[in-house]
Design goal:
Blueprint lengths: L2 H12 L19 E2 L4 E2 L6 E4 L7 E6 L5 E6 L4 E3 L4 E7 L7 E7 L3 E2 L3 E3 L5 H13 L6 E2 L8 E2 L5 E4 L8 E3 L12 E2 H22 L15 H15 L10 E3 L17 E3 L9 H18 L4 H20 L22 H15 L2 H10 L19 H10 L5 H24 L15 H18 L3 H14 L24 H5 L21 H6 L17 H4 L3 H13 L3
Parallel strand pairs: 2-10, 13-17
Antiparallel strand pairs: 1-3, 3-7, 4-5, 4-8, 6-7, 8-9, 8-10, 11-12, 13-14, 15-16, 16-17
Helix pairs in contact: 2-16, 3-4, 3-5, 3-16, 4-5, 5-6, 5-7, 6-7, 7-8, 7-9, 9-10, 10-11, 10-12, 11-12, 11-16
Bound molecules: ligand G3I, ligand 9MR and zinc ion.
């Protein structure tokens, strides 16, 4: 709905003209007390809406949209405490109803929900938008989202670059491709690592569902699946960040963040930034790079053989460098204040690299490294702390067991740990009012990506042992992200009827268009209120799941980021027909 329509609605509602009562025959403004997945539900899957009203309600109906004809009647469940939101939540279970269509939930005495759909394809649109968001983040090329999103475009940006003194080199340098990281225009190898890794895994796990999805990008129709065409744009930039000795520089950014301007207006110098002293490249970046390039070698082989071989060579060289330089950390050098993605321990990145290299090549040396070291990470796969940009051990462990990992004991232990953790996540999720997998400590900067990564973890467990509870709980996290949450918001721009309107995203803020760019998952609740706007506008002491504001200034709650969208894409792919 356009903002103007929302306002009109509000005015009519205030005047009592919007149609009242519970007949459903007239439009009534939706109530945030009733929560649905605003993309919708799969016909054969569980279907639960949630109600958080001041006092318990009794009955609900599922009504057709528009019109309001009753399609299903049910009783609400008992109110369940949800400690992280402070809400008492009742379930409206309409799983028995499977007829495709558009609906809303009506709860007498409370109100009606935003609309949702039931159908086999309900997540196709969200997948398209979420994956296509990467096209909008492309650096170094003019971008145009096309007739469906007129005026959503930017000219080619950051075409020139330079070596920062911290890189060990000097002078100008070309700048090539990549995705802007987030709301800022930096490009960071570490964050590109988990992002491209997760997206490559999306293809590898769900190829039959995603390979034919056309993303309407310049390469569409070239014989390579579009998801791989898009990922390649960033892999190409990552390849450009590798030095001749195999090491990989940490990032390419300006020294400070630019103003809220379109990317082509950003004339701050785009520097390759290093550690400031020999060897200048850093171990976490090089480990992530090796892992991702090794995975790319597998995935691109059927489509672009030479490219796959180039990726594998790059991965091997990175590994060799890492062997000699296992613990070179990155901190922003003096004068540089863009994102740090600082990580004090690069052993997990190295483990992931060994495992992807072993999986792609079968070489004994990579396998030996993995087997010698995986025990150090045996507690990594657990029901808390899923994978994130700084913690990639899970990916290393899983890829070993999912691939042809030759050591049955290691593969078996990884599988067992994954199933045990998944079982615990399922139980925890079912006990919470909002039925998401978040723990109290998970409401950090980018918390929505934690929910998405729990979903990914559950779908990986399902690949080890098919279990409908794992898939259903993964979908529960998707439902949380798409509207079944304390704010009744879909946290993804342009997905659902009540999405964010003001993400911290420079193109969205600077393009002069009312609505933001489509398909972005915003960071979400952040109990630390880690930016000045949050501290000014979000009251202290709120329950963690409520520490959120849809405000462009609030970068610690409402920024977008490539690594947050990636597990969302994975989860949506898992839910595609
Ligand atoms: O892991 C700890 C946890 O143990 C602890 O309980 C919790 C308490 O606050 O903090 C957790 O660490 C948080 C960390 O993210 C976890 O990933 C830090 O507080 C938090 O400050 C940190 O935020 C990072 C933020 O940069 C600030 O450094 C985000 O993860 C990261 O996504 C974000 O990345 C930025 C880039 O720097 C620049 N580009 C935009 C991008 C997105 O905002
Ligand atoms: O836009 C920046 C965002 O990408 C970062 O995540 C965030 C934290 O590092 O910083 C944002 O930039 C702000 C800067 O830190 C302080 N001045 C205001 C900037 C936002 O316009
Ligand atoms: Zn750019």
């Amino acid at each position: 709905m356009k903002l103007s329509a929302v306002l009109l609605f509000a005015v009519l509602a205030a005047l009592g003209l919007s149609g009242a009562g519970q007949s459903g025959a007239q439009p009534v403004a939706p109530s945030a007390a009733i929560k649905v997945d605003q993309a919708g539900y799969l016909p054969g899957a569980p279907k639960v809406a949630l109600v958080a009203a001041p006092s318990p309600a009794a009955d609900f109906t599922v009504r057709r949209a528009p019109g309001g004809a009753v399609a299903f009647r049910g009783k609400l469940g008992a109110a369940v405490e949800d400690p992280d939101s402070g809400d008492k939540v009742q379930a409206a279970d309409f799983g028995a109803f499977q007829t495709a269509g558009k609906y809303f939930i009506d709860v007498p005495g409370v109100g009606r929900s935003w609309e949702f759909a039931i159908g086999a394809n309900v997540y196709a649109r969200a997948f398209y938008l979420a994956m296509r968001s990467y096209y909008g983040q492309r650096c170094g090329i003019a971008v145009d989202l096309g007739p469906e999103f007129p005026a959503y475009k930017h000219a080619a940006c950051h075409l020139t670059g330079a070596w920062h003194a911290s890189s060990g080199k000097s002078g100008p340098r070309t700048s090539a491709k990549g995705w802007h990281d987030a709301g800022d225009y930096g490009r960071y190898v570490v964050n590109s690592g988990i992002t491209t890794g997760t997206l490559l895994w999306t293809y590898e796990m769900f190829a039959s569902r995603v390979k034919n999805v056309k993303l309407d990008i310049p390469e569409s129709g070239n014989g390579t699946p579009d998801i791989l065409n898009e990922i390649k744009w960033n892999l190409d930039w990552m390849l450009s960040m590798q030095d001749e000795d195999g090491g990989v520089w940490h990032k390419q950014t300006s020294e400070k963040f630019c103003a809220f301007i379109m990317p082509e207006k950003d004339d701050l110098i785009s520097y390759v930034v290093g550690t400031g002293q020999a060897p200048f490249k850093s171990s976490c970046a090089t480990g992530d790079f090796a892992a991702v390039m090794a995975a790319a070698a597998r995935v691109y082989k059927p489509f672009q053989t030479d490219y796959a071989a180039q990726c594998l060579r790059a991965a091997r060289q990175a590994w060799t460098w890492l062997d000699k330089n296992p613990n070179v950390r990155f901190n922003n050098p003096p004068g540089v204040s863009t994102g740090g993605y600082g990580d004090g321990n690069c052993a997990d990145e190295r483990l992931w690299a060994a495992a992807e290299l072993a999986r792609s090549t079968g070489d004994a040396s990579y396998e030996k490294y993995f087997l010698d070291h995986y025990g150090d990470f045996k507690n990594s796969i657990r029901a808390a702390n899923p994978q994130s940009w700084g913690s990639v051990a899970n990916l290393g462990l899983w890829t070993y067991a999912l691939g042809k990992g030759g050591n049955a004991e290691a593969a078996g232990a990884i599988r067992e740990a994954s199933l045990k953790a998944a079982g615990e996540i399922v139980a925890r999720t079912a006990a919470l009012g909002y039925r998401d997998s978040m723990t109290t400590r998970d409401y950090i900067w980018g918390s929505n990506s934690v929910a998405a990564n729990y979903g990914m973890q559950l779908l990986v467990a399902n690949a080890f042992k098919s279990d409908p509870r794992y898939v259903q709980t993964a979908l529960d996290n998707l439902h949380y992200l798409l509207g079944r949450n304390p704010f009744s918001m879909s946290y993804v721009t342009w997905v659902g009827a009540n999405p964010p309107h003001h993400p911290h995203h420079r193109p969205s803020g600077a393009d002069g268009i009312d609505q933001p760019w489509p398909g972005f998952l915003v960071g979400g609740p952040n109990s630390g209120r880690s930016d000045p706007a949050m501290r000014a506008k979000v009251p202290a002491g709120l329950p963690p799941a409520k520490a959120y504001i849809d405000d462009q200034e609030a970068y610690a709650a409402n920024e977008v980021a490539i690594n947050w969208n990636a597990p969302l894409v994975f989860l949506l792919a898992g839910a595609l027909k």
